[in-house]
Amino acid sequence: xxxxxxxxxxxxxxxxxxxxxxGLTPGNLSVHLQRLEEAGYVTVEKAFVKRRxxxxxxxxxxxxxxxxxxxxxxxxxxxxxRGAAERGADDTSVPHHGDxxxxxxx
Length: 106
Known about the structure:
Helix content is about 55%, strand content about 20%. The protein has helices at about 1-5, 15-20, 25-40, 60-90; strands spanning about 10-15, 40-50, 50-60. The chain has a domain at about 1-65: Orthogonal Bundle (Arc Repressor Mutant, subunit A), CATH 1.10.10. Strands 1-3-2 form a three-stranded antiparallel β-sheet. The protein is elongated, with a radius of gyration of 22 Å. The longest helix is centred in the last third of the chain and has 30 residues, at about 60-90.
């Protein structure tokens, strides 16, 4: 899904740009992109430019939708965690366990 971050806003990006952005090896990125392509989340286009191979990657509408749903799910988890933390800070009935070494008869 990290690749979809770079692809979410624009049209298409070069493979090498994506590789450098994500800090992945060419082989590792290729495997990730292949999985995303199989899921219908990206398209991969290969061509020769001045006799040199170039690869471009673009998010599909399905990929952008899946990425948005992923972000929504992460935001929901964060909201739940924040709510639980706030309730825990206000709830004096929850015992504080403190130091696990405390009370072991040192």
